[in-house]
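Review session, final week

We close the course with one last complete record, chosen because it touches almost every idea we covered. It is Glyoxalase, a protein from Niabella soli DSM 19437 with 129 residues. Go through it on your own first, then we will talk.
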Amino acid sequence: MHPTKIWANLAVTDLKRTTKFYTDLGFTPNGAPNEQLTSFLFGENEFVIHFFLKEVLGDGMKGVIADAHTANEIIFTLGAANKDDVDTWAKEVEAAGGNLISQPETFGKAYYGFVFADPDGHRFNVFYM
């Protein structure tokens, strides 16, 4: 296999809420939202995450979509430039309506970070290493 690109597709229940959450966190929109999805670019490599309405994404998944509030589906990791960025991002996530799963903390030998969930339960790891 030689894929030309990789991106993620996640299910959400409220496109306006999702668009506001990721916009409030400063992520760059990947085109304009429409009635089926909203999309954002993440990181310097502009990794694309599409957030589809659950009922739209369901047919393409060919199976049950996990409830991210009750089961872990995936965790994306966002790299921070320093510890101050980690602390600032934790405050921004809460202010935007995200749920801090863990407060910023030191773990391992050289990591500092936290875990949060967006309003639909999708988890992100934020850390500086």
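Two points worth writing down before the exam:
The CA atoms of residues 2 and 37 lie 27 Å apart.
The chain is about 25% helix and 35% strand.
Good luck, everyone.
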